Amino acid sequence: MDYTVEIKRSERRSMSLEVRADGTVLVRAPMRMSTPRIRAFVERSRPWIEQRLQKLREREPVQKLSEEELAALKKAAKPIFAERAAFYAPLLGVRYARIAVRCQKSKWGSCSGKGNLNFNCLLLLAPEEVLDYVVVHELCHLREMNHSPRFWALVESVLPDCAARRQWLREHGEALLARVYSP
Fold this sequence. Notes:
With 183 residues, the protein is an alpha/beta fold. The protein contains six helices and six strands, in the order βββαααβββααα. Helix 3 (67-92) packs across helix 4 (128-140), helix 4 (128-140) crosses helix 5 and helix 4 (128-140) packs across helix 6 (162-181).
């Protein structure tokens, strides 16, 4: 194996894989799943992992953000996220507590049980419709704290093209993260 595998266990039901911008492989697994079973999952997924690693190697070098640029991005992001959340929350019939902006390595947004919304400032480098998708996604968690069919139907009720927006983030997200977190 020519890559590092990190295992993160949590109260989830299934396993998932992520190849990070730095080339490490993150396996999310249920708390009680055995290590041999996780290793077998990684081995079965080797072709997919190697394909993702190859894409990382072929990716054109990106210009990293300076500390000043990153600080300016964070400062500019908060009012934009606040405006977009204020626009979409009434459409969904939800209220949120506060909004925080960070520069995260793997998350584009999150929603706490207390109604706090967190967003990744790097979304300002994405198309506006992708930023809106993440805002709507997190606001929908205020009604459905899961990714059930009801949750996705709620997202789609506001953004009928949410699948295309989500796909853009899957295809281009690593390049955005590499602006800060590339090896």
